[in-house]
Amino acid sequence: MQCFQSFSSSAFLALVLVLVEHAAATSTDMQIYWTQPAAGNIERSELNGSNKETFRSGLNSPYGLAVDMSTGWIYWAAYQKIQRQNLADPNSPIEDWITYASGGLLFPMGVGISHNDLYWADMTSGKVSRRSLDGGPIEDVVTGENMPTCVAVDSDGGVVYWVNYGDGMVKGRSVDLSDSVREVATGLSAPYGVVVDKTNRKLFWSNAISNTIQ
Predict the structure, then answer these.
(1) What's the CATH number where 191 sits?
(2) Is residue 51 a part of any domain in this protein?
(3) pTM score of the predicted model
């Protein structure tokens, strides 16, 4: 599988492009997944926009999406929980992977996967945290942030980035936590989503007011 993640601005549509590899894999095997928080849906379609359908409905404010390429599990942030489901079995039950009770989640939004860890930003608690996809304890990457809304992990560079809606910043820290938090961009107006362009070594973020990508 291959995955590309991006996030829009004001509507915070989380997009995940998934390619299921097999002997006759073509572009028709690719689908885009996105969330509609207000409607409580995860939608999907082909790359050309055809065959649009609701993948899951009845969710409580789903936001960011991420796919574990090695297992085919899709993860998403919802109100006070992170949930997951196996893409290969659409009839499989939705699992509450982390909840308020088990992990103190308040309002997780953006999620991202790097190697064997899932990262997320909790807008209400002000934390960026992670947990092994195999389970285990939750580890805080950083605390005391001002309304972090999204994360993006540069697996090659070994850095996790996040945006703070509250103070207009993009920040980063090494995934091994060996350094202090660095300010990547400041003085921004309503930054919301962030994504890493690994090919061109660039970082993009969205503006929730002007509906632009910077």
Answers:
(1) 2.120.10.30
(2) no
(3) 0.86
Q: How far apart are CA 174 and CA 159, in angstroms?
A: 4
Residue 179 lies in a domain: yes
* Mean pLDDT per 10-residue section of the chain, whose length is 214 residues: 39 47 48 86 86 91 87 91 88 92 91 92 96 94 95 92 94 94 92 85 84 78
As a whole number of angstroms, the distance between CA 78 and CA 61 comes to 5
| Cβ-based neighbour number of residue 180 at 10 Å | 8
pLDDT of 44-53, one tens digit each?
888 788 889 9
Residue 79 lies in a domain: yes
Q: Which of 65, 67, 72, 68 is nearest to 86 (CA)?
A: 72
Alpha helix ranges (H) inside the chain: 100-103
Q: Are 3 and 17 in contact (CB under 8 A)?
A: yes
Using one digit for the tens of pLDDT, what is the confidence trace for 51-72? 899 989 999 999 888 888 888 8
